[in-house]
Amino acid sequence: MTTLARELRLTIVVHGRPAPQGSKRYAGHRRNAASGRVSAVLVEQSKRVKPWRALVTRATEDAIHTQRTGTVSTLYPPLDGPLEADIVFTVLKPASAPKRRRTWPTTRHSGDVDKLIRSTFDGIADGGGVVDDSRIIRVTATKTFPGEHPDALDQPGALIRLYTLGDPS
């Protein structure tokens, strides 16, 4: 297996409760005025997804702005080409969880990690961090409680690192 050289290009810190982007529900039909075609209207079932994506979008814009106005400026159009994402989601620890020992966030309320990734990638793309989230070809995602992972935040949110990947040869 070839190891691709990678370079850290963008670090995004999002504060807020991560929300999984899950299933859609049918909400009727609509007719496209230009083409006349009828299509189904699908609505996100989770009410928390939209606020989470907005937080990710804003944090992405802030991270890009910080890099642009900082002393080192290397990033400006959205990232393109093969990318890697490393994400640490920090979720609320339930009151029922043990206080003095480490536990795993495996409850249904903490969200499926694949659905957390989906909503987060959409927010990054909306914020101009990447041309399209399809450019992200490798992902490492961790779901943890505050203080129980080296990269965990002290409150719910996410630490996202985006890397460009080098030539695969």
Would you kindly provide a written description of the structure presented here, covering whatever features stand out?
This protein starts with 5 loop residues before the first strand and ends with a strand. It is 21% helix and 30% strand. The strands form 2 sheets. A 4-stranded mixed sheet has the order 1-6-4-5. The mean pLDDT is 84. By secondary structure, the chain is α+β, with helices and mostly antiparallel strands. The protein has a single domain, classed as Holliday junction resolvase RusA (60s Ribosomal Protein L30, Chain: A), CATH 3.30.1330.
Outline of this structure?
This protein is of the alpha+beta class.
Give the helix/strand class: alpha+beta
Q: Quick one: overall form? A: globular
CATH-derived architecture: 2-Layer Sandwich
Q: Low-confidence segments, ≥5 residues, pLDDT <50?
A: none
- According to DSSP, the number of beta strands is 6
Largest sheet: 4 strands, mixed
CATH topology: 60s Ribosomal Protein L30, Chain: A
Number of domains: 1
Helix content: 10-25%
Helix and strand string, N-terminal first? EEEHEHEE
Key structural traits:
60s Ribosomal Protein L30, Chain: A; 4-stranded mixed β-sheet; two-stranded antiparallel sheet
Layout of strands and helices, then pairs:
Elements: E1 6-15, E2 24-31, E3 38-44, H1 49-69, E4 83-90, H2 113-126, E5 136-144, E6 157-165
Parallel strand pairs: 4-5
Antiparallel strand pairs: 1-6, 2-3, 4-6
